[in-house]
Specification:
By secondary structure, the protein is α/β, with parallel strands linked by helices. The chain has 13 helices and eight strands. The chain has a six-stranded parallel β-sheet, sandwiched between helices. The chain has a two-stranded antiparallel ribbon with strand order 6-7. The protein is globular. Bound molecules: nicotinamide-adenine-dinucleotide. The site of nicotinamide-adenine-dinucleotide has 27 residues, from helix 4, strand 6, helix 5 and helix 9.
Length: 348
């Protein structure tokens, strides 16, 4: 790489089993006194337990998937009503999305405590859905000031959810490796992220409460989030965003599409493929990725997660209308073939 731009994101990362206990100290360090605690309804009890030593101003435990505008408004109103001076979001990408949405309009600092591998905690990307569409943007205001990664909090993440979420993280790394705005430091980070996640996920599926594997996966997820924090997305993320519009689940869609997106780009991004294969310990990136997913026992076909065959052509058309920059030209016929292969779960 003879030409690149590197941008560092200012944030503090606290990593390790049991370190969620340092939450109160981190809030104090920020100089905040009135934290708003954010969670989904399902994780509310667990989250209150994590925050038991924290003097909280209020709780918003109604976070849901896709950050719908109406629910975001309720969260913002809650923050105003309790006079919050920071947000503490404990949960997956959906929950962290609410902390970011509050920060977008208020500039309140966010402390994120991720319990999945989505990587949202490391990025300036926000998304709010309204009237069937999702508004997405980048704004430094929404980047969490502090991220606490505590693998103990992930022990109950079901193995199948962990596997799909981990593949979502691997997809971040893979696309960062062939991003048009990549850089050499990011390449090292992304390759190590794939290595850590690919080593940890089969161990989690075998023994979901193995702390070493949970810790390694969360470490990989941090690197994956870091690797997308400064680089753009390519065809894989574009297709997943399009398929999300057809109602398909986020993490599973990422895991199914990834090997096929890699096959699409294989000849156009040989150095990225070499790094991905090396991180997986396999001969080639697309088949190595597909085989890893097979070992994890997660869905391998878009047909199995709610995609309709009749919608494939429409999805391909939408994807090629406003493509993201990609190593290989994004064209209708090969994109349709990619989607058909992912629909049927073929070995790439
Ligand atoms: P999620 O937050 O919806 O969580 C998935 C499921 O896991 C939920 O049912 C949740 O309750 C459960 N869960 C979470 N942690 C758990 C735990 N420790 N134990 C047991 N169950 C647990 O899904 P996600 O995959 O983490 O995030 C997806 C969302 O994040 C999408 O909306 C996506 O757009 C967004 N995202 C944003 C960015 C960004 O940079 N802005 C990056 C990646 C993903």
């Amino acid at each position: 790489m003879d030409k690149f731009t590197y941008v560092a994101m200012p944030m503090r990362v606290v990593f390790g089993a049991g370190r969620a206990a340092e939450l109160a100290a981190e809030v104090e360090r920020l100089g905040a006194k009135r934290p708003l605690l954010i969670s989904t309804p399902g994780r509310a009890a667990m989250v209150r337990g994590v925050a038991k030593n924290l003097d909280i101003a209020g709780v918003f435990d109604q976070a849901v998937m896709h950050t719908p505008a109406a629910v975001v408004e309720a969260a913002r109103e809650k923050a105003r009503a309790v006079g919050a001076d920071c947000c503490v979001a404990i949960g997956g990408g959906s929950t962290i999305g609410f902390g970011k949405a509050i920060a977008l309009s208020s500039s309140l600092p966010v402390i994120a405590v991720p319990t999945t591998y989505s990587g949202s905690e490391m990025t300036t990307i926000w998304g709010i859905s309204e009237a069937g569409g999702k508004k997405v943007g980048r704004d430094p205001k929404v980047l969490p000031k502090v991220v606490i990664y505590d693998p103990e909090l992930t022990l109950d993440l079901p193995a199948a959810t962990a596997a799909a979420s981990g593949m979502n993280a691997i997809a971040h790394c893979a696309e960062a490796l062939y991003a048009h705005d990549g850089n050499p430091l990011n390449n090292v980070v992304a390759e190590e992220g794939i290595r850590a996640l690919a080593a940890a996920l089969p161990r989690i599926v075998k023994n979901p409460r193995e702390m070493g594997a949970r810790s390694e996966a969360l470490y990989g997820a941090w690197l994956a989030g870091l690797s997308i924090s400064t680089t753009g997305n390519a065809i894989h993320h574009k297709l997943c965003h399009v398929l999300g519009g057809f109602g398909l689940p986020h993490a599973q869609t990422h895991s199914i599409v990834l090997p096929h997106a890699l096959r699409y780009n294989a000849d156009a991004a040989p150095e990225a493929m070499r790094r991905i294969a090396r991180a997986l310990g396999t001969q080639t990136a697309p088949t190595g990725m597909w085989e890893l997913e097979k070992r994890l026992g997660i869905p391998m076909k878009l047909a199995d997660i709610g995609m309709k065959k009749d919608d494939l052509e429409r999805a391909a058309k939408i994807a090629v209308q406003t493509p993201y920059p990609n190593p290989r030209k994004v064209e209708y016929q090969p994109v349709l073939e990619l989607l058909q292969n992912a629909y049927e779960g073929r070995r790439p």
